[in-house]
Write a structure and sequence with these properties.
The complex is a heterodimer.
Chain A lengths: L9 E10 L5 H9 L7 E3 L8 E4 L18 H10 L3 H11 L4 E6 L5 H14 L8 H4 L3 H10 L5 E4 L5 H14 L5 E8 L3 H9 L20 E2 L1 E9 L4 E10 L12 H14 L8 E3 L6 H14 L5 E3 L2 H4 L6 H14 L5 E3 L17 E2 L5 E3 L3 E7 L3 E9 L3
Parallel strand pairs in A: 3-7, 4-5, 4-6, 10-11, 10-15, 11-13
Antiparallel strand pairs in A: 1-8, 2-3, 6-8, 9-16, 12-14, 15-16
Helix pairs in contact in A: 7-12, 9-10
Chain B lengths: L2 E10 L6 H9 L17 H6 L2 H13 L2 H4 L3 E5 L5 H12 L6 H5 L5 H10 L5 E5 L4 H15 L5 E7 L4 H4 L9 E8 L5 E13 L7 H9 L5 E15 L2
Chain lengths: 401, 244
């Protein structure tokens, strides 16, 4: 289909990504299509007396340059692994518009908590914080500050931390910074890293599964944690993938549980469609928030049933990469971006919904993608519903499709 | 860059708790107290008991800034350099000693806890962002508020900025004014009120060791006759100017 008059003056020009599935977008895309769950691994060192499946990034990460040692934490090393994949296009963009016209908006819910954990353990043993620890690693603002210092960018640089919707919001803010004329290019995305704090916190909330997460299944028993980074270069103009719709809501319900009726989710999806000036029937694919917790899947499916009279094919990618929390919104927008990039002759390959195949009859039915399924090319939607009742839904489309 | 109108403001710091007290402080600023927390009686007791000190301070400024009928209608931006990191540090210390975490304390330690609490207390279902930007947090919060105004120019944005001193564990790693405070500003795209334009200017790096948090420097300027406020940060300056 053709997007007659894109509302935004910007495009998602390039994407770098790292997660449990791989170290570049090519490898990640192949393993997404194959619904590959082989890389999850069991860890017994995160939560006392529990073994958890974790979608973690294995192997060495790039080294933070010595001049930025104060930012040297695992979270920023993941960011660097994603950034390096698009460093040449970023360099071109900075040269073209000037470093004062480039901004940074990053999402994270962890920043460098795992490094702070090590520093505090060190202090418990020795009475002093670990030598290599600096507060710049832990504070949320450091996630954006690291990129701004690394690339010597002088536009606004800030971090959004609204739990699981952080990454989606960072793309929304990037679009607006360009629309407002504050920036001509924005480096926007999100990174989260596995740490004891979130593993123990979510475990205490009784939302972490013993097995690998099983979204929309009758046997689902919670989420599986993951980590990674997805970073876009958002540019003024361009004809590639565009962020056409942003829909947001707060739930006014509970600090750690969604409204069971899914009103907040419904409001976010409807608002994103309005913002995109699009009917629900135009959506070709929906990336679920799909955490595999009992409550999320009930309320999300109920909300989808109310927003869509004809159900679009849906899948959750949490059972392939884990729930990357603060990074999830950007990560899953990234999966949608890869899908839109893969359109060929008007046909779009879809990411399968990996689960045990046992549908939960209690859920309002949704149309789950099976391996090999394709659909006519069109706009895609992705849901991110955060802790604290903070929701953000995005609609992306390819201007050339 | 776009301008916004400041329809109302409110602030809280221990002992400086209403607009008259703030006007007096802005005329003649004196040392601010390190610690303290407001009663926050507008919060239901169960919610109030679980709130961090910072949440009480930011929510008190937020509620003071908005008429009751407006509280549910505004989009919100909560900007804080440290957020509830002191609560997170306590949780990390428990983990280091092999102790279990309380699920409630964990859910109240996240950076967007203030946003969630405000939404519940004010029955607000609008867009809400929570940001942090190291020394640049106030100016960045203002910019994020502009992005929400851009998304829906008819909907006011409540910008709430605040911090409390960083826990002793990490306090030596940060050089900043150590006080407990919050400032709330109700911003509108096109409405009566004082118009303020923000810009980011560039130039040679400037050393600055601010005496007051940026948000309170802003309030002093906002209540003065000075045409322009400039706050340096590295190679940049945040500049606020009044519009006609």
């Amino acid at each position: 289909m053709t997007i007659a008059s894109p509302r935004t003056a910007s495009s998602l020009a390039a994407l770098g990504m790292v997660n449990a599935l791989g170290r570049d977008t090519g490898e990640i895309w192949r393993r997404l299509l194959a619904a590959d769950q082989s890389h999850f691994r069991l860890r017994d060192d995160l939560v006392p007396e529990r073994r958890l499946w974790i979608g973690e990034v294995e192997g060495e990460l790039p080294r933070i340059p010595a001049r930025l040692r104060r930012y040297a934490c695992r979270n920023n090393a993941l960011t660097l692994a994603a950034l390096e994949q698009i460093e040449s296009v970023i360099a071109e963009a900075i040269a073209a518009v000037g470093r004062d016209r480039v901004g940074v908006v990053m999402g994270t819910s962890t920043s460098g908590v795992s490094d702070a954990e090590a520093a505090i353990r060190h202090r418990e043993r020795t009475g002093r914080l670990a030598e290599e620890f600096d507060y710049d690693q832990l504070e949320f603002g450091g996630a954006a500050g690291f990129i701004a210092h690394l690339l010597e960018i002088e536009g606004p640089a800030y971090t959004i931390s609204t739990a699981c919707s952080s990454g989606a919001r960072s793309l929304a803010s990037a679009r607006e910074l360009i629309d407002l004329g504050i920036c001509d290019a924005v480096i926007a995305g999100a990174t989260d890293s596995i740490c004891g704090l979130t593993a123990n916190g979510f475990s205490a909330l009784q939302v972490v599964a013993d097995g690998i997460t099983n979204p929309c299944s009758a046997n689902r028993a919670g989420l599986t944690l993951g980590e990674g980074s997805a970073i876009f270069l958002v540019m003024r103009g361009g004809r590639g993938v565009q962020l056409l719709g942003v829909g947001e809501s707060s739930e006014a319900h509970h600090m750690s549980a969604p409204d069971p009726a899914g009103q907040g989710a419904e409001q976010a999806m409807s608002a994103a469609l309005r913002d995109a000036d699009m009917a629900a029937s135009a959506i070709a694919y929906l990336n679920l928030h799909g955490t595999g917790t009992s409550l999320n899947d009930v309320m999300e499916c109920a909300a989808i049933g109310r927003v869509f009279s004809a159900l679009p094919p849906c899948s959750s990618t949490k059972s392939l990469v884990g729930h990357t929390l603060g990074a999830a919104g950007a990560m899953e927008a990234g999966f949608c971006w890869l899908m839109l990039q893969a359109i060929c002759a008007g046909v779009m390959p879809l990411i399968p919904h990996a689960y045990d195949g046992v549908r939960d009859p209690e859920l309002v039915p949704v149309s789950l993608v099976t391996p090999g399924q394709q659909c006519p090319a069109g706009p895609v939607m992705t849901n991110s519903f955060g802790f604290g009742g903070n929701n953000c839904t995005l609609v992306l489309a390819s201007a050339s499709a | 860059m776009r301008a916004a109108r400041v329809r109302s403001w409110a602030a809280w710091s221990p002992g400086i708790e209403d607009r008259d007290a703030w006007r007096a402080w802005c005329e003649e600023p004196k040392e601010l107290a390190r610690e303290g927390r407001p009663a926050a009686n507008f919060l239901p007791p169960l919610l109030r008991r679980r709130c961090s000190g910072l949440a009480r301070i930011m929510l008190s400024a937020a509620f003071d800034c908005c008429e009751p009928e407006v509280r549910a209608q505004v989009a919100t931006v909560f900007a804080s350099r440290h957020g509830n990191i002191n609560e997170s540090i306590e949780l990390l210390e428990r983990l280091a000693r092999g102790q279990a975490l309380s699920p409630t304390r964990f859910s109240h330690s996240v950076h967007n806890a203030q946003a969630g609490l405000y939404s519940i207390a004010a029955d607000n279902r609008q867009a809400s962002s929570s940001i942090a930007a190291q020394e640049d947090t106030f100016g960045s919060g203002w910019i994020e508020a502009l992005t929400l105004l851009a998304r829906d120019p008819r909907r006011p944005v409540l910008l709430v900025v605040g911090d409390v001193p960083l826990a002793a564990t990490f306090a030596a790693l940060v050089d900043e004014p150590e006080t407990s405070y919050a400032l709330a500003l109700l911003l509108e795209a096109d409405a009566p009120g004082v118009g303020v334009r923000i810009a980011l200017e560039h130039g040679a790096p400037q050393a600055r060791r601010p005496r007051w948090p940026d948000a309170l420097e802003f309030l002093r300027w906002f209540l003065s006759d000075a045409p322009r406020l400039s706050l340096a940060c590295g190679r940049r300056r945040w500049v606020w100017e009044r519009t006609a």
